[in-house]
């Protein structure tokens, strides 16, 4: 039961399971199935760590409710760490929308509960599809299973370690977003500089009026290069998310 609570809290927040395209019934069934498979491992890890195992964990109602709340917090924290890693792809798409002029057509996506323009949503949906198509979600679930060894049932989260992981994750988020969208952003920035110089040389041309179609053309032409790199990006982010999961446990 406690393993299922941690897994359910993780699936509600962590991608790709957090997307609303995955029904809540599927998440609940997946959490219970994984909990049944991981229960022996979780019990052995709890016993090895000196924590009570088996039915001794729920020695009373108050103790059991406290353990449930602890596992909800633990699963949510682990899921947030994974979600923050994969948020780099959406951040890269948002940066392309901002510099390419697509941000003017942003809309609210009820499936992901986020607001973004075309490239941001394209990158997010492509990452979601790649996680399932490449079986990367199984790597994430394997990392979740190993957290029962690093962070056994009955053991609380070390807030200092969690804060360090979140701080490092935010830094990696911005760095990864710039690595994904950086070349295209540089080209769009140089286009703005060129249009500005052209306006200074010949003000009557009104070069900035040509800026929107020019930047959109550059984004559509050169954005394919960054888009083709997404499979390798998702692979690298998957490995990073698993290592971050284990880092929180330590």
TrEMBL record:
Protein name (database record): Flagellar biosynthetic protein FliR
Topology in membrane: Multi-pass membrane protein
InterPro entries assigned to the protein according to its UniProt record, in alphabetical order: T3SS_IM_R
Coiled coil (UniProt feature): none
Pfam families to which the protein is assigned, alphabetical: Bac_export_1
Keyword Glycoprotein recorded: no
Bilayer-crossing regions: 77-102, 122-145, 165-191, 203-230
Signal peptide limits: 1-20
Domain of life from the UniProt record: Bacteria
Record keyword Signal present: yes
Organism name: Actinotalea lenta
Localization terms from the record: Cell membrane
Keywords from the UniProt entry: Cell membrane, Cell projection, Cilium, Flagellum, Membrane, Signal, Transmembrane, Transmembrane helix
Family: Belongs to the FliR/MopE/SpaR family.
């Amino acid at each position: 039961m406690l393993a299922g609570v941690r897994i359910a809290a993780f699936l509600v927040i962590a991608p790709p399971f957090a997307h609303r395209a995955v029904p809540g019934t599927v998440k609940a069934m997946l959490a219970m199935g994984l909990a049944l498979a991981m229960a022996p491992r979780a019990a052995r890890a709890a016993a090895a760590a000196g924590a009570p195992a088996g039915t001794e964990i729920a020695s009373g109602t108050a103790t059991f409710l406290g353990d449930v709340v602890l596992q909800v917090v633990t699963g949510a924290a682990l899921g947030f760490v994974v979600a923050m890693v994969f948020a780099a792809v959406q951040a890269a798409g948002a940066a392309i929308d901002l510099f390419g002029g697509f941000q003017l057509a942003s809309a609210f996506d009820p499936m992901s509960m986020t607001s973004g323009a075309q490239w941001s949503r394209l990158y997010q949906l492509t990452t979601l599809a790649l996680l399932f198509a490449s079986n990367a979600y199984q790597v994430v679930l394997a990392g979740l299973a190993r957290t029962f060894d690093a962070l056994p049932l009955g053991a609380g989260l070390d807030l200092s370690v969690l804060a360090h992981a979140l701080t490092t994750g935010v830094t990696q988020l911005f760095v990864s977003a710039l690595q994904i969208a950086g070349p295209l952003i540089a080209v769009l920035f140089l286009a703005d500089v060129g249009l500005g110089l052209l306006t200074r040389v010949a003000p009557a041309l009104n070069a900035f009026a040509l800026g929107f179609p020019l930047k959109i053309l550059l984004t559509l032409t050169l954005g394919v290069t960054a888009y083709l790199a997404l499979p390798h990006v998702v692979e690298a982010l998957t490995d990073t998310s698993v290592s971050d999961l284990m880092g929180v446990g330590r």
